[in-house]
Amino acid sequence: SKAIRELGIYVSITNEEVPDYAKQYLDAMGEMIGMEWSYDLDGLSKEGYHVSVARKYFAGGVNFDPFSGNKSDDNDTNLLTP
């Protein structure tokens, strides 16, 4: 998460709407690292051109290490790699 700037804004432009399963994953991971997503922004998205934005809403470190080897939790954070 060092590549994600404190209080930064990130834009995703896709040619299809972000599927619900991907939204759920991005929202869950966003909660862990302090990012909030908004999907298919009005006035910017149209058919074949979907704009979503994520905002890192807090500053400070995140207690998350995908290489810690801790596989005992019931989430998919061990699948996140740079």
Characterization of the model:
- The protein has one helix and three strands, in the order E-H-E-E.
- It is an alpha+beta fold and 82 residues long.
- It has a three-stranded antiparallel beta sheet with strand order 1-3-2, with helices on one face.
- Mean pLDDT is 77; it is low at 70-74 and 77-82.
Physical arrangement of strands within the biggest beta sheet: 1-3-2
Low-confidence stretches: 70-74, 77-82
Counting helices, strands and paired strands, the structural category is alpha+beta
Strand portion: 15-25%
Which overall shape is indicated by the principal axes computed on the Cα atoms? globular
- What is the residue-averaged pLDDT? 77
SSE layout and pairings?
Blueprint: E1 9-14, H1 20-33, E2 35-38, E3 50-56
Antiparallel strand pairs: 1-3, 2-3
Q: What key attributes describe this structure?
A:
82 residues; alpha+beta; three-stranded antiparallel beta sheet; 1 helix; 3 strands; 17% helix; 21% strand; disordered C terminus
